[in-house]
Design brief:
The protein has 165 residues and is an all-alpha fold. The protein has six helices and no strands.
Amino acid sequence: MFNPTTIFALRCYLLMNGLLNSMVLIGFFALMEGVAWFTHKYIMHGFLWVWHRDHHEPRKGTFELNDIFGLMFAIPSVWLIVEGSADFDWRFFAGFGIALYGLAYFLVHDVFVHQRIKALKKAKLAYFHAMRQTHHLHHAVHTKQGAQAFGFLWVLPKFRRQFKK
């Protein structure tokens, strides 16, 4: 049988393991905003503009060539989840953090900002209003150069002030 010391040690281990896994998940979620910003500015508006261009033009149909980027971001997420699922090690939680960022990106960028699914038309909170307006500012430029505001979920303070209701 387990003595009280062993039970206490097991509880501490599970608590610490849960905290560490949560930190990995949250850390990778947060890291993805930086990865997305860098990718958007230097790759999407760089050498892969050919895939991203149609996102800056009026949409014709349900899908865009730009949607390939979502699949590209899913690859490391799925790989990490699969690799880490045997032991539920840090890779599982890192992949899950990336996947949660992808879900948040889809809901905020595609559903809320671009209305690819007609929902959430009114921005009641000032932050979400600023997010939508900042992204529309980004789309005011229809060329590879000259765009600003490359983030997705984080709205810079200057844009929050500019688009304050």
